[in-house]
From TrEMBL:
Residues 58-238 form the SMP-30/Gluconolactonase/LRE-like region domain. It comes from the Bacteria. Pfam families: SGL (PF08450). PANTHER family: LACTONASE DRP35, LIPOPROTEIN-RELATED. It comes from [Mycobacterium] crassicus. The keyword Heme does not apply. Belongs to the SMP-30/CGR1 family. Coiled coil: none annotated. Keywords: Hydrolase. Gene3D superfamilies: TolB, C-terminal domain. The keyword Ribonucleoprotein does not apply. This is SMP-30/gluconolactonase/LRE family protein.
Length: 313
């Protein structure tokens, strides 16, 4: 079976882990399955699903990735900062301003060797200001030259990830309902943005997190439609699953049109089914085909079996 033929039904999902708090982001590693945790750090889940919290004091831990030495870089969504959580649990601020100007609502730091790409939902806080008014999202590059803005005017920048070949930086532009990509130049600057896949994923189809598979497809979590989409390697859209709370989504879309949207209206789009406000996807297991999905609203990770292996981080 290829991804073009693959769909999920409610009974195809499972659960992994217990006692998590807002597991917005998922990371698979040899030492366990990691998830962001609203208690102030990141939690490692053992093979049996038991969790151990690492770090403390991060305000609403959101997206994160990991350096080769085991240090986690975590976006503090409520703090407007990116933090380091070292393997011993020590926490410090990596970046919260550029030349004295606060960076805003940091969403996701993507480790790329010695570089870090940081998505910023909006230069203002709280983060849900990004749901109202003009696009003020940015992408920041932090490297040996320091921190600088390399893309701006993105309408609610969500996850950003480097392509498997290292030649493009992909970004979920949530409020424009699309996936962007930027050529990465030799000096670390970004080339002209382009849309990968459909120019519009559909009504209320706000992409949040995404992951590549070994065939070059991109698996995308669609938060407010409680959905999972695939954009194939040649840019075609395939809907794997969705469970739309139609009244709540209509209320959110009306509020966005009137510049009145907020986090509560977004949270109201949660489904009662097995996939609830999905925000992140990562692949693991012995064959790389077990998918783990993060959420804003569950205390566990949602799982399913994929027809193709994901690219393990």
């Amino acid at each position: 079976m290829t991804v073009r033929d693959f769909t999920l039904a409610p009974g195809d999902f499972g659960r992994f882990g217990t006692g998590l708090a807002r597991p917005e982001c998922v990371w698979i590693a040899d030492d366990g399955i990691w998830a962001s945790d609203a208690r102030g750090g990141v939690t490692c889940l053992s093979n049996t699903g038991e969790g151990t919290l690492l770090g403390s004091g991060v305000g609403t831990p959101n997206g994160f990735s990991r350096r080769a030495d085991g240090t986690f870089l975590v976006a503090g969504l409520a703090d407007g900062a990116v933090y380091e959580i070292r393997p011993d649990g020590t926490v410090s601020v990596l970046l919260d301003n550029i030349d004295g100007v606060p960076i805003g609502a940091a969403n996701y730091p993507c480790v790329d060797g010695d570089r870090v790409w940081i998505s910023v939902m909006t230069t203002s806080t709280p983060w849900d200001e990004a749901l109202r008014g003009p696009a003020k999202g940015q992408i920041i590059l932090l490297d040996h030259r320091g921190a600088r803005v390399v893309a701006d005017g993105v309408h609610l920048t969500n996850e950003v990830k480097v392509s498997p070949r290292g030649d493009y930086l992909y970004a979920a532009e949530s409020l424009q309902r699309r996936i962007l990509r930027f050529p990465i130049e030799a000096d670390g600057s970004l080339g002209e943005r382009e849309v990968f896949g459909p120019s519009d994923l559909g009504e209320g189809a706000f992409p949040d997190g995404f992951s590549f598979d070994v065939d070059g497809n991109i698996w995308v979590t669609i938060i407010c439609r409680n959905g999972l989409y695939v954009i194939t390697a040649d840019g075609e859209l395939h809907i794997v699953y969705e469970d739309v709370n139609k009244p709540a989504l209509a209320a959110l879309l009306e509020a966005i049109a009137e510049d009145k949207a907020n986090a509560e209206l977004m949270g109201g789009c949660a489904a009662t089914g097995p996939l609830v406000l999905p925000t992140s996807i990562a692949f693991g297991g012995p064959d790389g085909r077990t998918a783990y999905v993060g959420s804003l609203a569950t205390d566990f990770l949602t799982t399913f079996r994929s027809p193709t292996a994901g690219r393990l981080r």
